Amino acid sequence: MKALVKDKAEPGLTLRDVPEPAIGAGEVLIKVLRSGICGTDLHILAYDGWAQGAVRPPLIPGHEFVGEIVEVGRHAGEAPDQGGLAVGDLVSGEGHLVCGKCRNCRAGRRHLCRSTVGLGVGRDGAFAEYVALPASNVWVHRGPVDLDTAAIFDPFGNAVHTALSFPLVGEDVLITGAGPIGVMAAAVARHAGARNVVITDVSEPRLALARKVGVSLALNVAETSVAEGQRQLGMREGFDVGLEMSGSPAAMGEMVANMTHGGKMAVLGLPTEQFPVDFARIVTSMLTIKGIYGREMFETWYAMSVLLEGGLDLSPVITGRYSYRSFEDAFAEAASGNGGKVILDWTA
After folding, report:
1. 105 annotated binding-site participant
2. Residues near 302 by Cβ (< 8 Å), separated by ≥ 6?
3. How many CB atoms are closer than 10 A to CB 50?
4. pLDDT in tens, 16-47
5. Binding site annotation covers 102?
6. CB-based contacts of 215-223 (< 8 A; 24+ apart in sequence)
7. Is 43 a catalytic residue?
8. 307 among the known binding-site residues?
9. What are the pLDDT digits (tens) for 207-232?
10. How far apart are CA 15 and CA 127, in angstroms?
11. Where is this site: Important for catalytic activity for the proton relay mechanism but does not participate directly in the coordination of zinc atom (predicted)?
């Protein structure tokens, strides 16, 4: 089969022929139809400091995908939380593979497993014509779904997990970072009944994407402060809910400074280094801060499917579509920081 491979401990990926993965008991083989490019994949491509510590070449990256089951291993068709799996099912995959044995896994809190292995990071992933996955990590699309949208269920899940961490109906929501996940979170917040949804960034193309999903205000914070945005909307007491998606120290500082007393913050953005935080403000404003990593398995996935069934439209977030043979152009667009999600088509 064709696959994009991190062959060596150096920058770059190679498109080449590799053996199809073999599946064991409890696993399924999936023919990949579409896969999405993530920031993690850009780190692996560049082989930066993080990738050097996390990846052991040779490796097939990729963890965002949609495909069709073509082979079901022994016992894999019995996955109880999926109602069974069968050849021909259209599926996406949860990219965090958990141990199933630790306290959190046994209590049903699989997203908190301390021994998580990442698909496309700790084991071969979905930048290939076929991928093997444990049945327990498979999500079947039971209803109609656009293939490009299904390919980005993994990052969509990050957005949903973050956005729905706290009640949103009638609330004023601040989202810092208008990357693809931030824009998806904005769409979810609006769909879930937030009153005002404000998103910030310094990239005008990405702010333009946010406007397409119906935010109340898309602020270029290089020109306009969050406090000024509040004034434009007639807000007087600050934001009820904050969703930090950028990993930027400045963005985190702006969020803390503009929250209402008793406000709640969900933080998904990963900073590249430690930075100071105004803890006096956090304490005196009685703010709640929740860290988010990945998706709740599989409650978040259920919520994603229901949101799409309810009319949530993610199509504005997908800005690039390429054949896998044009992967270099696809990665270049994804790395530009000016667009949304970029999709690789493994059937073209």
Report:
1. yes
2. none
3. 14
4. 999 999 999 999 999 999 999 999 999 999 99
5. yes
6. 215/175, 215/186, 215/190, 218/178, 221/250, 221/251, 221/254
7. yes
8. no
9. 999 999 999 999 999 999 999 999 99
10. 9
11. 154
- Residue 1 token pair: 């089969």
* H/E stretch holding 264: strand 259-267
CA torsion sign, 87 to 91 to 92 to 94?
Answer: negative
In the residue annotation, 191 being an active-site residue is answered as: no
Q: Are strands 14-17 and 27-36 parallel, antiparallel or unpaired?
A: unpaired
Residue 269 known to bind ligand = yes
Answer whether 16's CB lies under 8 Å from 31's CB. Answer: no
How far apart CA 168 and CA 204 sit, in angstroms, is: 26
Domain ranges of the chain: 2-152+314-345, 157-291
90 is in an annotated binding site: no
Unique residue bearing structure tokens 């404000």: 198
Residue type, 142: R
| Residue 237 marked in a binding site | no
Instruction: Please pick, among 43, 96, 111, 161, the residue that the annotation labels catalytic.
Output: 43
CA dist list (Å): 152 to 67, 241, 296, 298:
12, 25, 16, 16
**What does the pLDDT read at residue 80?**
46
Question: Which of the listed CATH numbers 2.60.40.10, 3.40.50.720, 3.40.50.2300, 3.40.1190.20 matches domain 157-291?
Answer: 3.40.50.720
Q: Answer whether CATH 1.10.3720.10 is correct for domain 2-152+314-345.
A: no
